[in-house]
Amino acid sequence: MNGRARQAAGILLDRHREIAEPATFRLLGLEWDLLPGVYAPHLTQSAALYAEWLPYPVHGSFCEVGSGCGYLAVTAALRGCAHVTALDVSAAAARNTRMNAVRHGVADRVRVGHGDMFAPLGGDDRFDLIFWNSNFVEAPATERVDGDLDRAFFDPGYGAHEAYLRDAARHLQPGGRLLLGFTDLGSEDRLSELAARHGWSAGTLRAARCGTAEGHIEYRLVEFRRAGR
Questions:
Q1: Residues 224 and 200 sit within 8 Å (Cβ to Cβ)
Q2: Spatial contact of 88 and 66, defined as CB atoms under 8 Å apart
Q3: Range 23-29 contact pairs with CB under 8 angstroms and sequence separation of 24 or more
Q4: CA 14/CA 123 separation, integer angstroms
Q5: What is the Cα–Cα distance from 63 to 77, expressed in whole angstroms?
Q6: Cα 190 vs. chain centroid, distance in angstroms?
Q7: Residues whose CB falls within 8 Å of the CB of residue 211, separated by 6 or more in sequence, listed in order
């Protein structure tokens, strides 16, 4: 495991665990609800970057895996996506996403599913864009990761990344795009290996290096394309 990645994740996890009561925060010029135990996007610079970098399919369909408090799914609806689906394995995160969809008046366009990766979707669900801001810190495959916050940061054996790359294609529209939020703290070699295994090639669309409390981190928006195309 990357020791720097583990240390940075530990610092950020400690800051998350200090949030013990429902709260609000400001991001992207708006006020958002936050429940305890849910990933707090205002604690990391990546949240605003991905919100600005994503090529939202205006009038189209958008799916976010790991929606957390829902700021990105709600932003997609506010920026013109006609159909937004937000998925999260955490029941608290799914509830938090619904709260923010109601707060910002887009509950009619934001469907929320609670379950692991794409499990809440039906076989006919297809999207113009699928995005996941991943739990990029690779942990040993044998390591036990307990709790929603820990799962938001650590991915034992990159099992979640493999599930994303294995199953996403069946939920893309023809010509649909598959994107991932990643950093230089993640395992690029492992990600490339998994992408190739499931017929994808990876390329970085946008990147920014930011100084944080956890040290300098390069945030990346990665796009996966079918190999050979």
A1: yes
A2: yes
A3: 27/51, 27/71, 28/71, 28/75
A4: 39
A5: 11
A6: 18
A7: none
183-223: pLDDT as tens digits = 999 999 999 999 999 999 999 999 999 876 666 889 999 99
As a whole number of angstroms, the distance between CA 165 and CA 199 comes to 9
What's the pLDDT tens digit per position in 115-130? 999 999 999 999 999 9
Determine whether 48 is exposed, middle or buried from the number of CB atoms within 10 Å of its CB (0-12, 13-18, 19+). Answer: middle
Is the alpha carbon torsion for 159, 36, 98, 33 positive or negative?
negative
More confident residue, 153 or 59: 59
Domain annotation for the chain: domains and CATH numbers:
3-226 (3.40.50.150)
| 147-186 pLDDT, tens digit each | 888 888 899 999 999 999 999 999 999 999 999 999 999 9
- Regarding pTM above 0.85, the answer is yes
| CB-based contact 222:200 (threshold 8 Å) | no
Token pair of 210, please?
A: 């930011």
